[in-house]
Design brief:
The chain is of the alpha+beta class and 346 residues long. It is built from 10 helices and 10 strands. The radius of gyration is 21 Å and the shape is globular. The protein binds adenosine-5'-triphosphate and magnesium ion. Magnesium ion binds at residues 148-149, 166.
Length: 346
């Protein structure tokens, strides 16, 4: 099948996604990643539609197209080599598509990362922080940080580098989503304030970059240990626990010097989470001691959320990963930003 000059290899699939079909394609001899959005659908076949319906559907499509184009033009300014930017966006027939470079992804899961040496894990974490700092400096919130959206690629020297993908829940901080239709997230990584939006509570605060910090707190805990942060049996998700004033338990397998930082990243109140700039400096070796959050932080202002949480129809889920061996703990190395720019050539 040919889509706007892209020869689809095999078929587009909708694995793990209710919102898109994706796969690979070839154009001018180069293999690329291609994703088809399942909505909106442009009214191509208008026979069964009234003029009002056609006009409404066209308007929805035009808004979608305008928003995506302005977002992608901002995203494409974030050139780090490790943020997978969008090389093409177009409508073909009734569907919209994006195209990105293809990443040769290593078949390694989070439990595999947890078995890496500490140095190797920190390299991945630093690369992710470098990318997140770049995004946040451009006012971009990723919005869906989780292992599936961080592709790990083996480099020529046998190390692993990380590539950030999937900006379909992303938004500009200057234009945060203001309804549940405009935001999807994974419950395992969902920040409490994002839940307020998803559950359509009146008191939902505007989302900002701190939603990524919460998700990174969960993700880094997994990278360090192979496990999600520990929760009381009453809670299924970290956001539920923190909304009740109960901090998730940081595993003893997390290196001591990261424990306080990870705890603060999981604070219920976004204002009390560190920002990526601080976490990045810390990871770089500028070990300014992170502020110690209270043992049981006061619940976020929107703590009423807890009662409505279970009623949320929300989004995708990911099963907890298996426990991993305790990582070795050599001292972290200090690295320069040039180092990250070249992370792909390691
Ligand atoms: N550039 C890429 N190179 C190789 N594989 C990719 C690339 N981008 C995505 N993938 C693979 O495709 C999967 C789905 O891509 P992506 O995360 O963008 O969409 P999605 O999660 O299905 O969509 P959405 O979150 O919009 O519903 C990824 O989990 C990854 O396995
Ligand atoms: Mg994804």
């Amino acid at each position: 099948m040919n889509v706007n000059g892209y020869e689809i290899i095999g078929e587009l699939k909708s694995d793990n996604s209710g919102f898109a079909k994706w796969g690979f394609a070839k154009k001018d001899g180069v293999e690329v990643f291609i994703k088809e959005f399942l909505s909106p659908v442009y009214p191509e076949d208008t026979a069964a539609l009234s003029p009002e319906q056609i006009a409404r559907k066209r308007r929805i499509c035009m808004d979608f197209e305008k928003n995506k184009r302005s977002f992608y033009s901002e995203l494409n300014k974030c050139v780090t080599g490790n943020i997978v930017t969008v090389s093409d966006f177009f409508r073909w027939g009734s569907r919209y598509y994006i195209v990105t470079d293809k990443v040769d992804t290593a078949t390694i899961k989070v439990s595999g990362v947890a078995r890496f040496s500490l140095d190797r894990k920190l390299l991945i974490i630093k690369i992710i922080l470098y990318c997140m700092r770049t995004l946040h400096r451009h006012g971009i919130v990723h919005g869906d940080i989780k292992p599936d959206n961080i592709l790990l690629k083996r480099t020529a020297s046998g190390a692993y580098t990380a590539k950030i993908i999937d900006f379909d829940s992303s938004f500009l901080e200057s234009a945060p989503p203001n309804s549940s239709e405009e935001f999807q997230g994974d419950l395992v990584y969902l920040a409490p304030e994002s839940f307020a939006l998803v559950a359509e509570l009146d008191e939902a605060p505007a989302l900002d970059r701190k939603v990524d910090v919460f998700a990174l707190g969960v993700l880094f805990h997994q990278y360090f240990t192979g496990e999600l942060p520990g929760l009381d049996p009453d809670y299924e998700y970290a956001f539920e626990s923190v909304l009740d004033g109960k901090m998730p338990k940081i595993s003893p397998l997390v290196p001591d010097e990261w424990k306080v930082l990870l705890t603060s990243m999981l604070c219920a109140d976004p204002a009390r989470r560190p920002d990526v700039e601080e976490i990045y400096s810390y990871a770089y070796g500028e070990r300014k001691k992170p502020a110690v959050p209270d043992e049981a932080p006061s619940p976020a202002p929107h703590s009423k959320l807890k009662s409505t949480m279970r009623s949320s129809g929300a989004v995708s889920d990911a099963p907890p990963v298996a426990a991993a061996d305790a990582p070795a703990a050599p001292p972290a190395k200090k690295a320069s930003s040039d180092f990250f720019k070249k992370a792909d050539e390691l």
